[in-house]
Amino acid sequence: MNKHLAIVEDDPGVRAVLEKCLTGDGYQVTALPSGAGVKHALSKNEIALVIVDIGLPDIDGLTLTRRIREEHDVGIIILSGRRELTDRVVGLEIGADDYITKPFEPREVLARVRSVLRRNERSRNGGANSEKHARYSFNEFTIDLTSQTVHDADQILVTLTSGEYKLLEAFVTHANRVLTREQLMELVYVQDAAAFDRSIDVRIGRLRRKLRDNAETPRIIKTVRNSGYICVAKVTRL
Asked: Looking at per-residue confidence, does 4 or 203 come out higher?
């Protein structure tokens, strides 16, 4: 079955272009003019990815993105006329997988959609490598590469996005080794690297907060100035 996508865009012209290019590529599409119907669409359909415009008439697109990320395991791409780096960083901070600025080429949208869907699919399914069938402990956490889950010492699940999980997996399986931003992008995104490497910094910031790791006195992920990052935690294979 073709994957089901949702578009949340108030501009009818932009919405029509997005719907045409996505349905033309074989996707099922639910197109919405505002954020009002998003909750219903996500609850009634098995939606794999949502494209969210920031400038919606009834709700701020960033607020909507945050709510979707908190409640649903779907891909999220923000669509915006705002080009400043700060806006992109904020979008990634709240959980978006990618950020596309207007005006855009439909082919670029298709490429970004495919990229996010592939990354999320890899994250859910894992790989054939035997290294995937392993569990590691680090500090008070345990990561299971088969189920792709992370639990703390009280066996409480740590909720991570696919990008955050892939970063943590890269650090744990390359402990005590400095990884540059370029290496992290290759490990996390394979050939689907994001357009700017600041996305790595943003995701590491989010990951640190979820692991209760202070950047000033790191116990897990340490910044190596002018080089990249290193996992300084003691990692044990279980």
From this structure: 4
pLDDT-derived band at 168 (thresholds 50, 70, 90) equals: very high
Q: What is the pLDDT of residues 14-41, one digit of tens each?
A: 999 999 999 999 999 999 999 999 999 9
Query: Per this entry, what is the length of the chain?
Result: 238
pLDDT at residue 103 is higher than 60: yes
- Phi, psi (degrees; rounded to nearest 5) at 79: -115, 125
Cα–Cα separations (whole angstroms), residue 128 to 146, 174, 193: 10, 19, 22
Q: Is the Cβ–Cβ distance between 157 and 143 less than 8 Å?
A: no
Of the candidates 48, 121, 60, the one whose C-alpha atom is nearest the C-alpha of residue 94 is 60
Domains and CATH numbers, the chain: 4-125 (3.40.50.2300), 130-237 (1.10.10.10)
Inform me whether the pLDDT recorded for 69 exceeds 60. Answer: yes
Q: Residue 124: which pLDDT band, with cuts at 50, 70 and 90? A: low
Q: How far is CA 25 from CA 22, 28, 70, 120, 200, in A?
A: 5, 9, 29, 19, 29
What is the distance in angstroms between the CA of the first residue and the CA of the last residue of the chain?
38
Report CA dihedral (117, 161, 159, 198) to the nearest 10 degrees: 180
Degrees (nearest 5) of the Cα angle 109, 113, 55?
A: 60
DSSP E strand boundaries for 148-227: 149-151, 221-224
